[in-house]
Every structure is written in structure tokens, then in C-alpha cells.
Amino acid sequence: MLVGIDMQLEEGSNVENLQAQRCRARIDHLDSADVENITEWNNTKLKRILVDYMLRMSYFETASKLSESSNISDLVDIDIFREAKKVIDALKRREVASALAWCADNKTRLKKSKSKLEFQLRLQEFIELVRADSYKQAILYARKHLTPWGATHMNELQHVLATLAFKSTTECPKYKALFEPQQWDVLVHQFKQEFCKLYGMTMEPLLNIYLQAGLTALKTPYSFEEGCTKEDPLSQESFRKLALPLPYSKQEHSKLVCYISKELMDTENPPQVLPNGYVYSTKALKEMADKNKGEIKCPRTGFVCNHTDLVKAYIS
């Protein structure tokens, strides 16, 4: 008995020491940011963001290699995400034991945040017993595991207990929904929410958040049109998907970019208008004219004219 207690105390002490070490490493990392090493500090931050994304996508081996080679193991949460992955995989296999064990390990913190995860897991386990026509076992399970939740979740409890009468073959939409496979997807999503809340993480990967911050400054209505240039990040479908819920950037001053050279058209490189109405930069058109003995060919329409036919445009 005493040996078991000693082992538990030692294990708890090791975990606390490890957490303290990681906290110290992260505080030291934040304190180390200054003008002299800002480039190196930003590179470390970028690697942390990439590791965070890999862990959320379950690329644990790659994440481990990057963190070890960059010496940032104490700045990332590989072990925590591995633990979460085991629970998620179990829920996808329609097993609740791992999730219930996780709830038991974090019972105090989950109670403080008024989490309903354990209750939802218990309800799902009850539903599975009803699905298997194990009604007697389901009643015994409800008495043992669901009764304590009656004081705070009576309405939901009554709703689920009614499945004993309606059974899994019911066509009543209100109770049929409880037996749908999608209920397991709901549990996976709910676990992810509770997991992120417990560890102070965002539901969205940090990489997505930083990309969205940049895309907000670039998003314009033109970015979603067919004529959007390939140089615009929003010409890519993956970036468009990230930018879709974001507001358009507030562009008080327009910028003209040459279709040919992709350079900015300004007072140093003013725009010139072809007889067909298309506009390109002076520098690009001059280079084209020098190569073709004064001849200009519009790259978008194929229209041909002489360099002397160009008209200078003025930016207001």
C-alpha cells in the first residue's frame, strides 16, 4: 500500500518538475526577444507554429524531428497532443473508455470550467446499450452513472432515457437522431473543444490564424474573380478558403501593378495606354519595343501597335 502511494507521489513529482521546466523554458524564450536576435527569435517562433500545425494534423514523427533538430522540445506540446490523439482515435472507433479516463484525470479542472463532456460520454454509452437491446444493463448503467447528473441535466437525461421505450428502430426524428453515427463526430468535436480550453489553446491551428491575419490585408473583391493574377496568394483555393470569412481590406489608395513585369506603376514607372485601352508600365513597354524594333504587342489581346501610339496615363 505504502509502496504504491510512494510511486504515485514520485510520478506526480516528476510530472510537476517537467511542467515547471517547460514553463521556465517558455518564459526564458519570451524574455530573450531583443533587437539583436529578433531574426533568430522569429525563426524559432515560426518553427513552433509549424510544429503546432503538424501536431494538430497528427504528423507526430515530423513534428518530433523538427522540434528536436531545432532544440525547441520544451516550447511545444508533443506529449499532450499524443494523449489527445489516443482519445480521438478511440472515439472514432466508438469507444469511450479512453475519453472517460481523460475526464477522470482532469476532473477538477473540467468541473471548474463546467464541462459537460463526461455527461455526454455517459449518455452515448447508455445509447449504445439500448442500440444493442441490452435494456436491463442500460437501466443498471443509468442508475449508477447517470443518476448523479439528474440535478443539473434533468431535461437531457429524460430525453435520452426515453430511448428505452422508443428503441433504436424508432422513426421519431427527436429520438432517431440520438442513434445517428454523427453523434460520435459531435463527441470528437466536443473533446477537442474541452482539450483546447483545458490547455489554453485555440481551436484553430496557429498557422491558420497567422495566415488569416496576413490575408486580411490582401483580400479584395478582385481576388475572387477569374482574372485574379497568379501572384496574388488568394488565387490559390486553399488561401481563398481561409480568407472566405474574413472582411475585405480597407484600401484607401489603389496600387497599379504592371501585368507584364509585375512591378508597381508609379511616378518613376508611369502607366501607358495602348490604343485598345489596355494599360502597362513604361518600363515593360520600352523593353518590348527595343526587342521588336518599336513594335508593341498586347499580351492579353494580341493587338499590335507602334511605340509612338502609346499615351501616357496619369495617376490621380
UniProtKB/TrEMBL annotation:
Residues 228-301 form the RING-Gid-type domain. It is found in: Cytoplasm. InterPro entries: CRA_dom, CTLH/CRA, CTLH_C, Fyv10_fam, LisH, ZF_RING_GID, Znf-RING_euk, Znf_RING/FYVE/PHD. The keyword Zinc applies. Residues 80-137 form the CTLH domain. Pfam families: CTLH, zf-RING_UBOX. Keywords: Cytoplasm, Metal-binding, Zinc, Zinc-finger. A zinc finger (RING-Gid-type) spans 228-301. This is LisH domain-containing protein.
